[in-house]
């Protein structure tokens, strides 16, 4: 018998174009990973590849920037610092300069405590000295899809206010809103500003992942998993008051039905969530059951095509507050 010989793949012999294509594929963030993002950075492989060479970095960066997750305050400040550094590179025509705004397609601004230095969330449009959102504003407003929590409307408003002073075109068409609907004062203040109203008027699709005070109480008491099928759905009050003059579709998550799983397939006890999308003509403040929603959606001319996504990692029943919406959105919710 011939002795076993270990084969080695001559990676270095491949054409450069093929090597870069392989590296680009390897750099795709692992958003569907089982491990929490806090323990394992989904961008870790891509960041490591950026250290290989300048050419590899240019190939990998678009994969990193396609979907930008800013779930915590430290992520926001780090990203703004990076953008400020890129501005310096561009001014010096440095070899590491890179146009971030050109490649960011989706951006998530999560529910984080605290605020950026110099930004008061209660003074929409009133920018205090010392805060410079000029690096973030054009990047955020160049992304076709953004997600923002009610608690961080100050950050969005600050970027819009900067763009209002030095005109930047609004590219976002899909807006996902998360958080508690009890923060009506912040939302009311935002929609009354000129820049806030102009921004909302440019949005064509809204995804609501918001919850009510009742949802919060049921979640805290541990009874949110009861009677999921009898849950009543209605158009959120915050949305009914918003100047969404160009709105075409409205989406909201519901418990899954029998459909083929999306590519971000749930594992373990993950909940499968269906994103139900309605045309704006079907919007109504009337309260409806899940069965009624399905009938309306099936009769509509714009059926939901978002399929199913993994969201929950805590319970096997549907509760807005039990779901991991950051992971679901990163995996493609609403895209």
Question: Summarize this, please?
Answer:
Helix content is 33%, strand content 15%. The protein is an alpha/beta fold and 335 residues long.
What does this structure look like?
This protein is α/β, with parallel strands linked by helices. 33% of the residues lie in helices and 15% in strands. It contains 12 helices and 10 strands. It has helices at 16-26, 44-49, 54-65, 73-91, 136-140, 153-165, 184-192, 194-201, 213-220, 237-240, 290-299, 325-330, and strands at 67-70, 106-109, 145-149, 174-180, 205-211, 232-233, 249-255, 272-279, 288-289, 308-310. It has an 8-stranded mixed beta sheet with strand order 1-2-3-4-5-7-8-10. Strands 6-9 form a two-stranded antiparallel ribbon. Helix 1 packs parallel to helix 3 (54-65). It starts with 15 loop residues before the first helix and ends in a 5-residue tail after the last helix.
Oligomer type: single chain
Major β-sheet, in short?
8 strands, mixed
Gyration radius over CA: 22 Å
Strand order of the largest sheet: 1-2-3-4-5-7-8-10
What is the structural class? Answer: alpha/beta
User: Which stretches are poorly predicted, pLDDT < 50 over at least 5 residues?
Assistant: 120-130, 258-269, 301-316
List the total number of helices.
Answer: 12
The proportion of residues forming helix, as a percent range, comes to: 25-40%
Span between termini: 56 Å
Q: Mean of the pLDDT scores? A: 76
Order of helices and strands: HHHEHEHEHEHHEHEHEEEHEH
Basic shape: globular
Q: What fraction of residues sit in β-strands?
A: 5-15%
Number of E-state strands? 10
């Amino acid at each position: 018998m011939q002795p076993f010989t270990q084969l080695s793949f001559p990676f270095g012999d491949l054409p450069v174009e093929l090597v870069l294509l392989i590296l680009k594929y390897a750099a795709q963030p692992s958003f569907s990973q089982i491990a929490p993002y806090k323990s394992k950075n989904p961008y870790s492989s891509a960041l490591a590849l950026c250290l290989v060479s300048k050419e590899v970095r240019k190939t990998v960066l678009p994969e990193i920037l396609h979907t930008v997750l800013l779930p915590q305050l430290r992520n926001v400040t780090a990203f703004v610092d990076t953008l400020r550094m890129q501005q310096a590179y561009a001014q010096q025509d440095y070899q590491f300069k890179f146009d971030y705004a050109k490649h960011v397609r989706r951006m998530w601004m999560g529910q984080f405590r605290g605020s950026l230095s110099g930004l008061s969330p209660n003074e929409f449009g009133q920018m205090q000295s010392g805060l410079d959102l000029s690096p973030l504003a054009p990047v955020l407003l160049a992304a076709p899809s953004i997600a923002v929590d009610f608690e961080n409307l100050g950050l969005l408003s600050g970027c819009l206010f900067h763009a209002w002073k030095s005109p930047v075109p609004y590219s976002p068409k899909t807006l996902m809103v998360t958080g508690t609907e009890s923060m009506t004062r912040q939302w009311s203040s935002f929609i009354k500003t000129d820049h806030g109203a102009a921004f909302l008027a440019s949005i064509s699709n809204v995804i609501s992942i918001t919850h009510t005070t009742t949802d919060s109480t049921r979640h805290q008491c541990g009874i949110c998993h009861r009677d999921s099928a009898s849950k009543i759905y209605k158009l959120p009050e915050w949305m009914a008051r918003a100047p969404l003059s160009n709105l075409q579709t409205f989406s909201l998550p519901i418990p899954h039905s029998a459909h083929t799983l999306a590519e971000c397939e749930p594992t373990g006890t993950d909940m499968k969530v269906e994103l139900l999308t309605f045309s704006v003509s079907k919007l109504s403040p009337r309260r409806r059951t899940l069965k009624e929603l399905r009938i309306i959606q099936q009769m509509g001319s714009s059926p939901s095509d978002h399929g199913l996504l993994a969201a929950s990692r805590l319970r096997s029943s549907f509760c807005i507050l039990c779901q991991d919406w950051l992971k679901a959105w990163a995996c493609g919710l609403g895209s």
